[in-house]
Design a protein that fits this description.
binds NADPH dihydro-nicotinamide-adenine-dinucleotide phosphate, single chain, seven-stranded parallel β-sheet, alpha/beta, 257 residues
């Protein structure tokens, strides 16, 4: 049986190391036969990615540098992708950032620049890359981002990132309406807590993970591979009737009061 993503060119943003959610996604997409293009911000992440790809024998069509804080970097990255790959069919946005000091204590103490930075990197970036990617999605496409339940409920210490994720989820809906007419879909996965570099930046990670094992219907945490498979579903034709959606991949934790 051929893969669900055979012949599809998919851009993956946000592999920093083996623990990254985007790495779980990479493996799922590769298993389904996708051609993969990667973007990194830091040179260090690019080196880690190259090693991982080699170790797992996963070919990359292209790896480009992309800092979502910089419009010219986005423009250059997508023109490089256009020149080397041409048409793309999918984009994985797995990128977020907030200052560590904002992810502890009271939300009311969020600074003006900390507020703006978290929104710029974690929410506006989806708008900017959707605008760039849609130009290359001339055969239709699918865009998937990663969010967290801190957008819907108050999760201790998640603070500004919860507010930025609410903005990200609203952007998913507005963008889905914008690009639906070009047969491009935009969806989000809301994953349960997974130990990654970014997760370690939020105080009290262990408590967040243990409350899931205690209260979630499935009584276990999710991992990168489960999020990878759900993201793959959104990138494949299996989800062709779905857009503007936020799918919880959290062992059912979100239904518990
Ligand atoms: P990682 O730290 O592994 O990945 C975060 C990625 O964001 C890194 O690859 C980093 O790139 C990238 N990034 C940060 N700033 C920029 C920038 N200015 N331009 C381009 N890329 C940037 O953590 P996760 O895998 O946990 O995070 C991925 C996504 O999943 C995030 O949106 C996160 O909020 C979300 N998520 C995470 C959960 C968790 O518990 N871990 C739960 C639910 C959602 P570089 O390494 O090059 O700096």
């Amino acid at each position: 049986m051929s893969g669900l993503l055979e012949g599809k060119n998919i851009v993956v943003m946000g592999v920093a190391n083996e623990r990254s959610i985007a790495w779980g996604i990479t493996k799922s997409l590769h298993h389904q036969g996708a051609n993969l293009i990667f973007t990194n911000r830091q040179e260090r992440s690019r080196k880690k990615l190259e090693k991982l790809l080699e170790k797992h024998d996963i070919p990359a069509k292209l790896i480009v540098s992309l800092d979502v804080a910089d419009d010219s970097s986005i423009e250059t990255a997508f023109s490089e992708i256009k020149d080397n790959v041409g048409i793309i069919h999918g984009l994985v946005h797995s990128v977020a950032f907030a200052k560590r000091e904002e992810l502890d204590g009271e939300y009311a103490d969020t600074s003006r620049d900390g507020y703006l930075l978290a929104h710029e990197i974690s929410a506006y970036s989806l708008v900017a890359v959707t605008r760039a990617a849609k130009e290359l999605m001339t055969e239709g496409g699918s865009i998937v981002t990663q969010t967290y339940i801190g957008s819907e409920r108050v999760i201790p210490n998640y603070n500004i990132m919860g507010v930025a994720k609410a903005s990200l989820e609203a952007s998913v809906r507005y963008l889905a309406e914008d690009v639906g007419k070009y047969d491009i879909r935009v969806n989000a996965i809301s994953a349960g807590p997974i130990r990654t570099i970014s997760a370690k930046g939020v105080s009290g990670f262990n408590e967040k993970a243990s409350v899931v094992t205690e209260k979630a219907p499935l009584r276990r945490n999710v991992d990168q591979d489960q999020v990878g498979d759900a993201t793959m579903f959104f990138l494949s034709d299996l989800s062709r009737g779905v857009t503007g959606e936020v799918l919880h991949v959290d062992s059912g934790f979100h239904i518990i009061g």
